[in-house]
Fold each of these.
Amino acid sequence: HSQWKQTHHFNTLAVIDYMAGRVLWKSEQFGFASIHGVVLLPQVEGLILYGRDARKITWTIAANLRTGELLWRNDSLFGEKGAALIGKNHESDKLLDGHQPPIFDTDSTMILCMDNEAIRRIDVRTGRVIWRTQIRAHDVPALVDGYAPAVLAGDRRTVYYPCDKSLLALKTEDGSYVWKSRPKLPGRVYQIQ
């Protein structure tokens, strides 16, 4: 258990030392007007924050959980359109919550699927995109929409993602497709075992 907790409230984020009852740092210090997603990075004792400034320009950062020190910033991690945000209400209420959770395939890398355009593998220490594989899906394969969670094979060499009425198998090393064509299924993939 950690003595640091994150609170995400009305599109801002604060990290609080709950033992001392004091705020350690806030998302506003990075220029965010709203935060739409947070991913814990235990490997580097940090958090990834995805958000927008007042002009609605999006970017992604990683910050040290204890100090709020900027570890890295990536302005184009999710391309020009940005990550697909989930929610039915006002734009400021939409979040990354409900997407595929990140898959930590090594101690220093994770695989992300946060839109319907690509799956990405990034270095969690630097924010550098190691590979980006286009998926060209109609839908974002979000858990909240009934898609199965992605699965990392036991040997950690292949990752499986649901995609529309199909299943994708990608090599974790370089993001290349394992299969020459996607299997056509009668419906959405709800479970992968």
Amino acid sequence: DDRARARSKLCAKARGPTTGVHMESMAIRDVENLTISARGLGYELNYSGLAQRLASATRMLQLHATLSIEPGDTIDTRHMTQSGYAVHTRFIERLADGSKVANSDNVFAFQAGLLVSRAQADVVILGSGDAIRALPAKRSVWTLSVPGSTSARLDCRRNRSIAANIEIGSDVLVPLSMHTCRNSPHRFRIGNS
């Protein structure tokens, strides 16, 4: 897919500057949505590489990640912490029929609101393919997603509340074929893999 082969790029609106070099930024990731979207294209997302890529484009960067984990499981949390993220989790719930409830969308929404209300960041980069219901006021809001997975409501060309969209490219995507080993440094389990 040509979209996935491109380097991570910024698709910005014509209005206002979008370079992050002199800004303080906060990036909040919905790890499950980004991981599932990348796998849908045949890739694993290198979260450490993504953190380095974003940090190289900003003066100061706070990284946060939301995800679901099995009670007692520290593998996914440790992976994200080692990649430079402050981790916010929810436990995977098992229902009576044996199915799992493993979605951190509510954790993402709650933590995003809480973190943004307490931060001084000029730019908030929200990493989720889902439509975000409430956007932080008085901040430049950017989205980050795997190509083709951003909700149309978050397209900066259509939504005046979004200053820019960042598409993740091949510089931080690793083909799934390279992840045959369960202990690969880029393999993220998302709780149920």
Amino acid sequence: AVLVFLSWRTRAVASEATRNTLCTLAPEAVEGIEISRNGTNIVKLTRNDSGAWSIVNPYFAPADAAPVARLVDALTLLPLGDMRTESELASLGEDFADFGLAGTVRASVKLIAKDGESQVFFGALSASGKDVYARADGLVNVFTVGVEALEAIPVDADGCRVRTLISSAGEQISSLDLHKPEAPFIRLVRSAS
């Protein structure tokens, strides 16, 4: 039994050492996202069968595909920088708290797919400010990744929301009525030419 465990642990350490992104899920497989900033502001997004994203928590609204894609790409495609393994952390007398990765972390993101899920925790910025310390759920390693991964995480649900006032295609709009209190009513009409 000990040999089986050691063989499994050797394979696990080897796969962690060759890992090159925070999440091993394929970007197109992601169907759900859960975002938390400083333990609060929990935002949940889901992707429907046609590929459109929606915010489902803290309120229901259509989500803008661009910031969602930016977040998924940052977690699944952005290459890792440095890594400290469990044994390196132990030999240096360091733990997750030294990197802002214990207790309430700066941000956490869970990507959900049919075949599994992957959660990433973000801690303190590196001394240069160009990287952020991160760890992946289930691994006892500390990674660095470009700060753009942290910047891709929306602060709240409004950072994911569709922000257009009019959702119809421009060519479908024939007129637009504008009214401001205590101001004259304005109607804009598209000309035939």
